[in-house]
Amino acid sequence: MKTTAQRLGLIAVFSGILAACGTSQNAFQKQTGVELPEETGVFAIRGDELQRLDGSPEWENETWAERSDLSPNVRFVIHDPAATGAGVRLWRVAWARSEVNGPAAVMPLEGSRWVVARLSEFETPVSVNRFPDHPGYLLVEPVQRVEPGLYQLEVGPTGEVRRARVGVNWPGVERRRYSSRNCVDRYSDLSPAYRPCRSQGEVFNEMARRGLAIELTDTQVQDGTLTLRGRIVNQARRLRTIPPLEAELVDAEGNVLQRWLFEPSSRSIEAGDDVSFTTSTANPPRGTKKANIRFLDAG
Q1: Residue boundaries of the structural domains of the chain
Q2: Nearest to 142 by CA among 121, 160, 165, 126
Q3: DSSP code of 116?
Q4: Which strands form 149-155's sheet, in the order they lie side by side?
Q5: CA angle 230, 231, 233 (to 5 degrees)
Q6: Spatial separation of the C-alpha atoms in residues 261 and 246, rounded to whole Å
Q7: Which CATH superfamily is domain 211-295 in?
Q8: Is the peptide bond before 192 cis (omega within 30 degrees of 0)?
Q9: What residue range is the signal peptide (predicted)?
């Protein structure tokens, strides 16, 4: 039968353990308030005890209530012989809203919607302290108080990462508000795959433009009207959506004299195909030396 300490993942560390380490042990204890753990793993410092944070999926489910209510001033101890201090990251866990394959293909996600998006805005800065006399022991301290929410601490290089999912005052967090503030969509053909939900319009434009090329084939002035003709070529291997186009007239110094928006003859284009466009403006400004056509930037 498991003891209470075992169930909570709390490790009682006795003064006799590793006593031979002398002053180096005292240096670790002075910084952390706890003694060196013998077990490998990821731990949170709680008073003068270490709370285990990583384990088997079954163990993590069983102990989630205890691991989800860490303090905003939480500090972590890592014991892993392979840990060098590199690759230690603390990510705020995001809520994935949907799977996006294009403006016309937005689907609900299957499975867990709590994801580590690995975007800079979801990273919580930490300082990592090493102990030269004890390789493999790290003290990880967030630079600032950690906001209430879900987090994942990762240690190690890609492919060999030790992970611990935790909560900071999570029982008191209003879930809908947290999900809204930390919302991401997953895009099947973009890297990075996750983008903040608020940028969906911008990402649609990025997806549409990827692999598209604009060719201006003819510029003509007749009866005071400037007409621009060209085509859009899809160099990608799949159908693309064409965003709106923007035309601008500039002078010899590159100053924009006039700008307007227009639509191509089709809003979608098959792989390898091209779509034509024509646009015109009456009485172009004096000093016009050049016409530019580009895809409209979102936002």
Answers
A1: 4-205, 211-295
A2: 126
A3: -
A4: 123-124, 89-92, 149-155, 162-168
A5: 155
A6: 5
A7: Immunoglobulins (2.60.40.10)
A8: yes
A9: 1-19
